[in-house]
Here is the input.
Amino acid sequence: MKKFLNHFFIFSIAPLLFFIALSLIPDLIPDDIPLDNRIESKIALLKIDTSKTTVIIAGDSRGERQLIPKIISRHTGFDVINIAVSSGELISTIRSIKKHYSSPKLIFVISASSWQINDGAIDPGYLSLNCFQKLSKTERIQLFANNTFEYIRLTKILFARYKNKLLSNTYTIHSARYDEETIKRRGFYSTKGQFTPKTSKLKEEVFLRSHPWYKNMAYDGARWRVFQAAFEEMANCDFRFFIIQSPVSSYWKKITSNTDVEKMETDYTDRLYHLAEQYNNVELLDFYNNDIKALDDSLYFDYQHLNENGAIIFSKIVAEIIHHPSNLTTPFLVDSFSIH
Here is the structure.
C-alpha cells in the first residue's frame, strides 16, 4: 500500500502540484512591467532629445524592417528612432512606452500585424511575456493545451524575472545585442533580396496552412481581449499615434484571395478602424487595402515584408503623412500623398 501511495504521489499528485505552481508564477509580477528585453535595449541605446519633436517607430518586424529613420527625418525635419522588434506585440510596446517616455512632443508610428489577435499564433516568439502575463489562468491553459513546452518556457522566464526581483529588488532584463550597423541606422534593420514565388498551387496552400501568423485562426478570444485593452491604454497616453497595417506583395494578395487569411486580414482592419475612430490622437494607416503603386513585387524580400529598396519608398510615404496629417482622409486613402 505504501509503495502504491508513493507511486500515486510521484506520478499523479506531484505533476499536479507542479502545474499549479506554474500557473501562479505569471501573476507574481506586476502587469505594468516592461518584459521585452529587445525593446528595452533599443530604448537604452537610442537616446532622444526630449526638447525636440521626435518620431518613434515601434511595433513588430514590419516596423523594424520597413521604416527608415534617416529617410523619415530627412523628409520631416524631426528626429526619428526605430524601437520596433521582430514579433513585437502592442502590449509589450505600450509597457515600454509608458515607462520611458513622457514628452508631449513625441509621435509614435506603430506597426501592429494581425497575428497579434490570433489565439492560434503561439509558435515560439509569437506570444510575448507581457501578453502571456495578461492572460487569465484559464486562458493560458486553453491556449497552450497542445504546446506545453512553450507554456513552461514562458513561465520559466517570468520566474527568473521574479527571482531577480527577490534577490536584487529589481526586475533584471538582460540586454539584447544589436550590431553596430543597426544602431547606426537608428534601429532600422536592413533586409535585402527578393522573394521567389511558389512553383505550384499545392505548395501555396501548404505554405498558407503552416504560416505561423494564421495557424488555427481564432481571433475573438483571449489575444483579442488583450489587444483591445492595450489599444485603449495606448490611446489614453498623451501622444500622437499612427497605427500601420502594412502593405503586402501582389503575389500575397493573389494566393490569399478568397481564403480564410484574406477574411482574417479584412476583419482585423475593420476592427482597427473601429478602435481608432474612438480617439482623436490615433490614426489608422491601412496600406494592406490601399496599394502603393510604386511598390511592385521586386521590392519585397518575402511576401509580406519590403526589402530595403521598398522600405525607402514606404518610408517616404509615411514621412509625408506624418508631416502633413491634415491631408488624411477617413477611410484612409494612400493616393492623397505623393513620393518626393
